[in-house]
């Protein structure tokens, strides 16, 4: 496995790949090295069949405080390709997470702000510790959103709530995040790690091909019409029926046991 700067990578025997942002002294704020590491690590996880689920979390007491303003990206030393990149590192994060055809869980163990908030929104699921705070925060710095926040936030909470959150730059506590649909689940601090592991392990028992096709449908649904969505669903479910995993699920149902999916 590759070495990644400011990023801890661990894979459990059941196929859960955990990526831990590792700049706790900076609340896991992002510099060039961490930005590059995370993008590469998500792509690597997506390419490995042995990885069933990806969990993104933070070391210490924060998830991610966004861009490290004391060490901003070093544009002058970037290559020409990097300088002409229309997405930059924040857009690359979003693309890698969204296009990863495996469930991606944001384990929000503490503050998630700015681009860190965007990273959490780009994930499929957000398990949030009870003491966590989430904020776009851009308005506090005279900035407009990045990291996909302007795209995902209205889709999660609606335009009106998104405008309130973005224009005020206010904090959201875990209870409000759950109430408005940003948090999949809120967990007490003392049982947070255990619950994240259990949730990820449960997802890891799922059928990999079905998960991949489901994620494709979800991503396409963000910008597609009903007729196209229905056609996409039909193509996908036919692909699923051709897999051994579906045959195993039917056999398991008849034998009254849990299916053992292999991704074939």
Strand order of the largest sheet: 1-2-3-4-6-9
Shape: globular
CATH topology of the largest domain: 2-enoyl-CoA Hydratase, Chain A, domain 1
Low-pLDDT runs:
none
Task: Please describe the biggest sheet, giving its number of strands, its sense, and whether it closes into a barrel.
Answer: 6 strands, mixed
Helix count equals 11
Mean pLDDT: 90
Helix content: 40-55%
End-to-end gap: 24 Å
The helix/strand order is: EEHEHHEEHEEHHEHEHHHH
Instruction: Supply the helix-strand structural class.
Output: alpha/beta
Global Rg: 19 Å
CATH class of the largest domain: Alpha Beta
Beta content: 5-15%
The CATH superfamily of the largest domain turns out to be: 2-enoyl-CoA Hydratase, Chain A, domain 1
Number of extended strands? 9
In CATH terms, what is the architecture of the largest domain?
A: Alpha-Beta Complex
Number of separate structural domains: 2
How would you describe this structure to a colleague?
With 264 residues, this protein is α/β, with parallel strands linked by helices. The chain contains eleven helices and nine strands. The chain has helices at 32-47, 80-83, 88-99, 115-122, 149-157, 159-168, 174-179, 192-204, 208-221, 226-241, 244-254, and strands at residues 7-11, 16-21, 53-58, 104-108, 112-113, 125-129, 133-135, 172-173, 185-187. The strands form two sheets. Strands 1-2-3-4-6-9 form a six-stranded mixed β-sheet, sandwiched between helices. A three-stranded mixed β-sheet has the order 5-7-8. Helix 1 (32-47) runs parallel beside helix 3, helix 4 (115-122) crosses helix 5 and helix 9 (208-221) runs antiparallel to helix 10 (226-241). The mean pLDDT is 90.
């Amino acid at each position: 496995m590759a070495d990644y700067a400011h990023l801890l990578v661990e894979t459990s025997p059941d196929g859960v790949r955990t990526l831990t942002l590792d700049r706790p002294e900076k609340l896991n704020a992002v510099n060039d090295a961490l930005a590059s590491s995370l993008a590469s690590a998500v792509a690597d996880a997506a390419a490995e069949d042995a990885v069933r689920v990806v969990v993104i979390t933070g070391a210490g007491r924060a998830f991610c405080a966004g861009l490290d303003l004391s060490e901003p990206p070093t544009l002058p030393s970037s290559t020409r390709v990097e300088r002409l990149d229309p997405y930059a590192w924040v857009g690359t994060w979003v693309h890698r997470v969204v296009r990863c055809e495996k469930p991606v869980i944001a384990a929000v163990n503490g503050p998630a702000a700015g681009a860190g908030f965007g990273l959490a929104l780009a994930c499929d699921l957000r398990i949030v510790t009870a003491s966590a705070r989430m904020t776009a925060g851009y308005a506090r710095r005279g900035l407009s959103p990045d990291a996909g926040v302007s795209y995902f936030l209205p889709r999660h909470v609606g335009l009106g709530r998104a405008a309130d959150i973005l224009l005020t730059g206010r904090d959201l506590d875990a209870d409000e995040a759950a109430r408005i649909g940003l948090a999949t689940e809120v967990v007490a601090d003392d049982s947070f790690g255990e619950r994240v592991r259990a949730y990820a392990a449960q997802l890891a028992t799922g059928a990999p091909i079905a998960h991949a096709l489901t994620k494709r449908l979800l991503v396409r649904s963000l910008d597609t019409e009903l007729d196209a969505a229905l056609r996409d669903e039909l193509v996908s479910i036919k692909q699923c029926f051709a897999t051994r995993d579906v045959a195993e699920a039917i056999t398991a149902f008849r034998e009254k046991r849990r299916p053992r999916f292999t991704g074939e």
